[in-house]
Amino acid sequence: MQVRLANPTQDFSMNTPQIIPESFEPTRKTLGTILSFAEPQVLRVPPYQRHYSWEDEQVKSFWDDLVAFRGRHPGEAIQKKFYFLGAAVLVNTGSEYLILDGQQRLSTATILLAAMRDVIRNANRAAADQVQNQYLLREDYFKGKKNPKLLMNDSDRDFFRQHIQEFSDAPPVAPKKTAPRSHHRIAKAYRIFRDRLEQGWIKARSKEDDIGWIGGLLQALTENMALVAVTATDEDSAASIFETLNDRGIGLSVNDLLRSWVLSKVDEEQRADALDFWNKAEADAGQGRGAGDLIRRSWVSTHGDVKARSLYRTVKLTLEIEAEKSGTALSEVCLDFSRRIRDDARNYEQLVSAEHEDLETAELWRFFMSAKATAAHATLLAAMRELQDSEVRVLTRALESLIVRHNIICARDRSEFETAVYEAAVNISSKKGLVSALNRLRALSPDEQEFSTLFAKVYFKKQQAAIAQHLLRRLEARLSTSEETFVAQAKKVHLEHIYPQQPTTKWEHHADYVDRLGNLTLLAQKLNSGASNKDFNKKKSEYYSKSVLKLNEYFKNVTTWGPAEIEARQEGLAEFAQQIWPKSLVSDP
To answer: Distances in Å between the alpha carbon of 484 and those of 360, 366, 477, 480?
Structure first.
């Protein structure tokens, strides 16, 4: 969740429904109330929850919101004012509160409290001790124990305790260079808070203020920054709360919901393996949207279309039914699902970064991204799982042909394209093979007449330049007599408008022709910058004649350039287009 969720209100209260199920209870709680829960019911982040993930921007926003809120309500004016930070979902097990949502805000507040404690320790040790014992780590001198108020997940717990929660006159423990990224984020958040506290306190003390300025921020943080704490009695009830919050548009990420639910169902002795699968998947695909896209594409590749909004509920229900029907333990089904996500993540990272030893395949994968046809990733994930590499290359070419014919040239319904590629993916995952997938894709391919007619008229605006470049590179490869010819990417070869975008003298129908494919070619960067807005004959003699591309040999015998010449050239290119992107989707070698 974002920190800036709402403006501070005069008085915040929940509209309590008439009937509240016994399994959960929503209440307003301040950060201070949550962080000072009576022992032994400490706050604990379950081992399957993600690491500390807030970056500098989110930490600074948290600080800015606190300072601005306190500034609007100085002194006693802050009484009964609350700043809403969003929702937290907790599970009361009887011995502790598990944090299923809200750990980033609670752990960040803890880091800020530690920075406050350390900044004021020399000026007022008793005040520093108060912050330590009430919100960070309470020392039981009779039992000889130190009890943290917040227990992080297994990976972050020890470092968080040593760097943040322990109260020592020694400098904070710095993370090792090889430490997890979350440790470095925790240390960086502490430094950001401490630097801002020290800078602000210098200004406050110049006005003969002791610790009052920091005390005001402490009050605002612990007594006036509030969360809606939804406390459930079991993790299944908490999961249903997640679904409700997501349906209401609160913005919980689907991958976080699935990760938490799946890992909570895996047996404890297998949880470390499942957690490792998810961590590796997120390392490859990226957290947040990257992981969410991966999970959806992976699921669609085996089960068919499901909308992102209903993905969590669909996966959860399907895995439960699968376990029941097969007689397999839900723990094993969830472990297999986690392993599949990990395996698909490796291939998904290749797809989105367009990495392949075959240059043509890599070029086509880049094209899928620029053409906004990433639904094809589901089909390719299935293929990379089930087919030979040579078959993956054949399927890649077929998908490119369908994208060019159906999506770009004929501009047909994109939802039909998505349906076709998802069904092709399921065919592959169901062991029906490449031919079955190709047949499903071919059923959507427009006929030759429609494709040729529309190709001869197609044009590309500035925002579609990458698509135009791709088509021209493919045309150049077809025209070339050498199989070794590979046209460079956009950084080295630019899109050239033969009739310029900003001509000295505009044609009467300038807008109708300037962006037509027949008026576009490829030219090396240095040649393109020189050609600029020059007239056709000058471009032809000084620039096109120096190009080694077959596309530009065309102009050798062209003496003038106007609308008729653009029409003629584009009609000629349309004939080659039928060979490159045939109705059968797979061209002859």
So the answer is: 11, 20, 9, 9
Whole-number Å distance between alpha carbons of 153 and 127: 29
Asked if residue 224 lies in contact with residue 83, where contact means CB atoms within 8 angstroms, the answer is: yes
Do the Cβ atoms of 429 and 572 come closer than 8 Å? Answer: no
**Secondary structure E strands in 115-241:** 137-140, 145-148, 150-151, 225-232
Q: What's the rounded Cα separation, in Å, for the pair 429 and 379?
A: 9
Q: How far apart are CA 481 and CA 520, in angstroms?
A: 21
Q: Are 360 and 376 in contact (CB under 8 A)?
A: no
**Residue bearing tokens 């880091």:** 111
Q: How far apart are CA 546 and CA 550, in angstroms?
A: 11
Q: Assess whether pLDDT exceeds 90 at residue 445.
A: yes
On whether the CB atoms of residues 574 and 452 are closer than 8 A, the answer is yes
Question: Which is it for strands 42-44 and 493-497: parallel, antiparallel or unpaired?
Answer: unpaired
31 CB-near residues (< 8 Å, 6+ apart): 85, 105, 106, 109, 221, 222, 225, 226, 227
- Answer yes or no: are the C-beta atoms of 415 and 290 closer than 8 Å: no
Q: What is the residue whose two structure tokens read 């979902």?
A: 89
389-390-393 Cα angle (round to 5): 90
- What is the rounded average pLDDT for all residues in the chain? 84
Q: Residues 351-361: pLDDT tens digits?
A: 999 999 998 89
Q: Domains of the chain: which residue ranges?
A: 24-236, 251-453, 459-580
pLDDT tens readout for residues 283-296: 877 655 678 888 99
Per the DSSP assignment, residues forming a β-bridge with 150 are: 43
- Strands 83-92, 24-30: parallel, antiparallel or unpaired by DSSP? unpaired
* pLDDT per residue as tens digits for the range 448-489: 999 999 999 999 998 999 999 999 999 988 887 544 444 545
Q: Which pLDDT belongs to residue 502?
A: 87
Which pLDDT score is estimated for 59?
A: 95
The pLDDT of residue 18 is above 70: no
Sequence-distant (6+) residues with CB within 8 A of 422 are 300, 301, 304, 305, 375, 378, 379
- For residue 519, the Cα-to-chain-centroid distance in whole angstroms is 37
Strand duo 145-148 + 137-140: pairing = antiparallel
Beta carbons of 521 and 496 less than 8 angstroms apart: yes
Quick one: which of 383, 406, 409, 410 has its CA closest to 396?
Answer: 383
In this prediction, residue 209 carries a pLDDT of 63
Question: How far, in Å, CA of 518 to CA of 498, rounded?
Answer: 9
Of 145, 135, 137, 152, nearest in space to 33 by CA:
135
Cβ pair 141, 167 in contact under 8 A: no
The CA distances from residue 332 to 31, 328, 555, in Å, are: 38, 7, 65
Q: Give pLDDT tens digits for 386-419.
A: 999 999 999 999 999 999 999 999 999 999 999 9
Strands of 417-500 (E only): list them.
493-497
- Global model pTM greater than 0.85: no
Question: Which helix or strand (DSSP H or E) is residue 279 part of?
Answer: helix 268-285
Distances (CA, A) of 55 to 58, 181, 197: 6, 10, 19
User: Is-contact 499 514, C-beta < 8 A?
Assistant: yes
10 Å CB burial of residue 564 (0-12, 13-18, 19+) is: exposed
